[in-house]
Amino acid sequence: MMLPLLLVALVSLLPLASSVAAGGADGEGFCSASSECSGGPPLYWKVTNPTLAPTHLQDLPGFTRSVYKRDHALITPESHVFSPLPDWVNTLGAYLISPAIGAHFTMYLAKMHDGSKSALPPKGVERLIFVLQGSIVLSVESGNTHSLLVDSYAYLPANMKHSVVSDDLTTLVIFERRYSNIEDRHPDLIVGSTDKQPLLDTPGEVFQLRKLLPTSLPYDFNIHIMDFQPGEYLNVKRDKEYTDWETAGTQCKQVTPFGWHLLCLNGMLPLEKTRQGICCIKMSIGIP
Questions:
Q1: Is the dihedral of CA 210, 212, 213, 214 positive or negative?
Q2: What's the pLDDT tens digit per position in 199-225?
Q3: Which of 11, 67, 6 is CA-nearest to residue 250?
Q4: Given Cys at both, which of 22, 133, 238, 250 links 171, Cβ 3.0 to 4.6 Å?
């Protein structure tokens, strides 16, 4: 029996001098989870930008810190391989996770340019789009359109016709998975932004937690945003599961203690929300 994958990625915790807006009850150090971040590089700059300067590699041709093994992987931004996405217009993609490595979902980055347009996922496949850079216009089969900026997201149920267009340099992270119908219930289109989601209680933990999708039965996976203070970590240790840690722009999946009551198929993408804190977006896929 194959163990389900759990993939996590946390981002750079290099302390910097500039201040950030407080998002927690006590204020200090937490990510504000707002759609705008004043000063410094873009909100999720470290997701796609190389962590090593060319001068670091001048005497090491072909050097990379990325490693893929059976039970762990190290994926640095400079190792992302972008190529045209099938059926998309003027868009490059880099696949991070796919069924080829045993996962039950696909996770990839999409770089859209002027005049770009998305393609539909395969029949029966649901899709979640999260905007890392730039902006998009989402059109759905009902005729409605939605403008999504950085830190905004959209969940598209399986078989919902839609299109995404951009006239600017835009980077998206996209999750796709074959939908598992539960008790003949069907999910709805969801469009939102991180800063509109309430903070949830996390007894015994130091991070701030926001859920982007409902936890009701029609939704067969979860999306979480976790905000950590520099140097903090998950305190709960219950089961051995796969996690994917990311530091200073480096993703790394490894077996490590991670507290969950149910082994699910999971995925996390490194998202740096402020320059003083650690944040991540997490995808938990599983049927109760």
A1: positive
A2: 888 787 777 888 888 888 888 888 888
A3: 11
A4: 133
Q: From CA 228, how far away is CA 160, in angstroms rounded?
A: 35
d(CA 110, CA 130): 10
- How many other C-beta atoms lie within 10 A of the C-beta of residue 196? 13
The CATH code of domain 45-52+63-285 reads 2.60.120.10
Domain ranges of the chain: 45-52+63-285
| Residues 6 or more apart in contact with residue 191 via CB below 8 angstroms | 138, 146, 148, 152, 153, 154, 155
Instruction: Return the exposure string of 102-141: e unless at least 16 CB atoms fall within 10 Å of the residue's CB, then b.
Output: ebbbbbbbbbbeeebebeebeeebbbbbbbbbbbbebbbe
